[in-house]
Amino acid sequence: MAEIIAIANQKGGVAKTTTTLNLGYSLMKLGKKVLMIDFDAQANLTTCFGIDEPNLIETNIAHLMIAKMNEEVVPPKSQYIVSNNGIDLIPSSIYLSVVDANLRLEMGSERILYEILEPLKEAYDYIIIDTSPSLGSLTINALSAADSVIITVNPQLLAMMGLQDFLKTTKKIQKRINSRLSIKGILLTMCDSRTNLSKILSDQMSEAYDGVVNIFETHIPMTVKVGEAIYYSKSIAEYSPTSKAGIAYADFAKEMLLYDER
């Protein structure tokens, strides 16, 4: 039975998509069956998966959401799950932005993604959701469906300032909608060990949240290899597994599995 993990932060540019892609592939390399969900209308994860024209996909996560909202039958999973190199994806498209607008008017809308994913859990070990950079209806849906959340944080001042608001929202969802939801931890991404600011902010993060929220020991470094891998529609595990980022994401997947075993 799969654990559903949301990769989230209301701030953009903190490597949510990169982390979803590379955590998924790293877990697959460790023998886990993984399904990734692109739950962002920008469809970056879908593009990273090698799908050049996301808006031409006949059935994606937006269509599934609309079907559920209209109480229609969801099509068989063969019509909306795509596979690549041993990992599965439910893709997205710009059409998801229409869903986001309609969700605000829908009764019980925060549970729609949960209803889509629940029947899929038996086929996977992990279902990983790449979320949009906001605290809107889509992110609330993702957190309402998830068993846990990993918060990606870029150790820059503006990226860290919204963390407290995100944690407050998560606790509200835990209390009001999804009592299963737990915070698996904070993952520091795009870390540049050469700068004093990055080190200072990382230390401040540890001081502020140590003992309150788990902070993963693995830090994801800033490296051009990640951008190169995305350009070639590959995970860093496929493109350059021995690079600093490749090693870091492999280590992070192992650390996460050890955390789950506690």
Mean pLDDT across residues: 90
End-to-end CA span? 18 Å
Going across the biggest sheet, name each strand in turn.
3-4-2-5-1-6-7
Per DSSP, the total helix count is 12
Global Rg = 17 Å
Strand content: 5-15%
Task: Give me the count of strands.
Answer: 7
Stretches where pLDDT is under 50 for at least 5 consecutive residues are: none
- Fraction in helix: 40-55%
Structural class: alpha/beta
Backbone shape? globular
Question: Biggest β-sheet: count, sense, barrel?
Answer: 7 strands, mixed
Order of helices and strands: EHEHHEEHHEHEHHEHHHH
Give an account of the 3D structure.
- The chain has 262 residues and is of the alpha/beta class.
- β3 and β4 form a beta hairpin.
- α3 packs parallel to α4.
- The longest helix has 18 residues.
- It is globular, with a radius of gyration of 17 Å.
- The model has no long low-confidence stretch (mean pLDDT 90).
